[in-house]
Design a protein that fits this description.
Blueprint (H helix, E strand, L loop, with lengths): L5 E6 L7 H17 L1 E6 L11 H17 L7 E5 L5 H10 L4 H5 L2 H9 L6 H15 L5 E3 L5 H18 L7 E3 L34 H9 L16 H14 L3 H7 L5 H27 L2 H30 L5
Parallel strand pairs: 1-2, 2-3, 4-5
Helix pairs in contact: 2-11, 3-6, 3-12, 6-7, 8-11, 9-11
Length: about 325
C-alpha cells in the first residue's frame, strides 16, 4: 500500500448512476486513485432493505461496475468488488450489532425517512443498516470515507462504535474521518433545484443518467427548471441557474465568473444548449467504453473475482483480530 491512506466508498445498485454521482464522486475518484489506496464497492447487501427483483439486482450490479470502469477507475490501482462477495461484512456486522445501542439507531434520520416512505416494509435490516455500513468501513482500517451530507450521521455512528470497541478491548479499529470534496459535492435535481439530484428519483427528467443518449440529455437540460431572471449569473438565491452553472463549471473547470463573462448578454436557451453538448461530449467516451465492457462479461467477472479476493484478505485480518479480542476461538 506504500503507506498511503485507505479511502473507501460504496454505492447501492439502485436507480441509475447519474451526472451527480459522476461529478460528486466518480470524477474525484480518478484523482484520488493516484493519492490513496482506494476501495470501491457496490453495496448490494444494503439494497436488500427494499424488496428487489433478483434478475434486476444482478443486472444493476454488473451495470454499476461496468460504469465505474468506463468512467476510468483502474482495477489495477483500486480494489473494486461486490459487498456480498466478502462474507466478513456480514460477520462483523453481527458482532458490531452487539456493541450498538437501540437508542443510537432509532435516532438515525435516514431510518425515520425510509420508514415513512416504506411503511409496508419496516424491517430489521433497515434499522440496523448503519451497523452494516460501520462493518463495511471498519473492516478495511479505513482512514477516509467520502460522504455527502445525508451520510454524515452514519459515519458518526461508525466512529462511535469504533471508539467504544477500542475502549473496551484496546486498539482494534482505525477511527475513520469524513472526506468531503469542496467542489461539485451537491448537484441538485433538474426539476426541483432545492433538493439533491437522486439516481433513484421517480421522475427521470430530474437527473441525467450516465447512459442517457445524447437526445435525451439535451432534452432534459432544455427542460430543466431555471428562474425568473434572464441573466447567466451565479446566485444561490436563484437555485435553478446556479445548479446548471455548477454542472457546467465542474465539467469544464471554468470558474463561475468566467462562465458569466462568456454568457454576458446571452440567454438561458443558448446556455442550456451549450451545457447539453458539454454533458454529451463528457459522457460519450464513457458510454463507448461501457458498451465494449458489457459485451465481455468474462472481463467483469474476473475483475470482481480479483477484487473480492484482495478485499477478503484485508477484511479477514480485521475480523480475526476482532474475534480473538472478544473470545471467539480461532481454528
Amino acid at each position: 500500500m506504500e503507506n498511503r491512506k485507505i479511502l473507501l466508498s460504496g454505492i447501492q445498485p439502485s436507480g441509475n448512476l447519474a451526472i451527480a454521482n459522476y461529478i460528486g464522486a466518480i470524477k474525484n475518484w480518478l484523482s484520488l486513485q493516484e493519492q490513496y489506496y482506494c476501495i470501491y464497492m457496490v453495496v448490494d447487501l444494503h439494497s436488500l432493505t427494499v424488496r428487489q427483483d433478483p434478475k434486476e439486482l444482478k443486472k444493476r450490479c454488473f451495470e454499476f461496475i461496468g460504469q465505474y470502469l468506463a468512467c476510468g477507475l483502474d482495477p489495477e490501482k483500486n480494489i473494486i468488488f461486490l459487498q456480498s462477495q466478502v462474507s466478513a461484512h456480514s460477520e462483523l456486522a453481527w458482532i458490531l450489532n452487539c456493541f450498538t445501542y437501540m437508542g443510537e439507531l432509532s435516532r438515525m434520520t435516514q431510518f425515520k425517512e425510509k420508514s415513512t416512505r416504506h411503511g409496508e416494509n419496516i424491517n430489521a435490516g433497515l434499522f440496523t443498516y448503519p451497523v452494516l455500513m460501520a462493518a463495511d468501513i471498519l473492516l478495511y482500517q479505513t482512514d477516509l470515507v467520502p460522504v455527502g451530507e445525508d451520510q454524515k450521521q452514519h459515519l458518526e455512528i461508525t466512529r462511535d462504535i469504533a471508539i467504544r470497541f477500542n475502549n473496551l478491548y484496546g486498539e482494534t479499529f482505525r477511527v475513520p474521518e469524513p472526506f468531503i470534496p469542496e467542489v461539485g459535492a451537491r448537484i441538485m435535481s433538474l426539476q426541483d433545484p432545492t433538493k439533491k439530484m437522486s439516481k433513484s428519483d421517480e421522475d427521470p427528467k430530474s437527473y441525467i443518467a450516465l447512459l442517457d443518449n445524447p437526445d435525451v440529455i439535451k432534452s432534459k437540460i432544455k427542460r430543466a427548471v431555471t428562474d425568473t431572471g434572464k441573466e447567466i449569473i451565479y446566485n444561490e438565491n436563484r437555485p435553478g441557474i446556479a445548479n446548471l452553472m455548477t454542472i457546467y463549471s465542474c465539467l469544464t473547470d471554468k470558474s463561475f465568473s468566467k462562465i458569466e463573462e462568456e454568457y454576458q448578454g446571452k440567454g438561458y436557451a443558448e446556455f442550456k444548449a451549450h451545457l447539453g453538448e458539454i454533458i454529451v461530449e463528457t459522457l460519450r467516451p464513457v458510454q463507448k467504453k461501457y458498451e465494449v465492457l458489457m459485451k465481455n462479461k468474462d472481463t467483469l467477472y474476473n475483475i470482481l473475482k480479483d477484487g473480492a479476493e484482495k478485499a477478503s484478505k484485508m477484511a479477514q485480518k480485521t475480523l480475526s483480530k476482532v474475534q480473538k479480542k472478544i473470545g471467539i476461538i480461532q481454528i
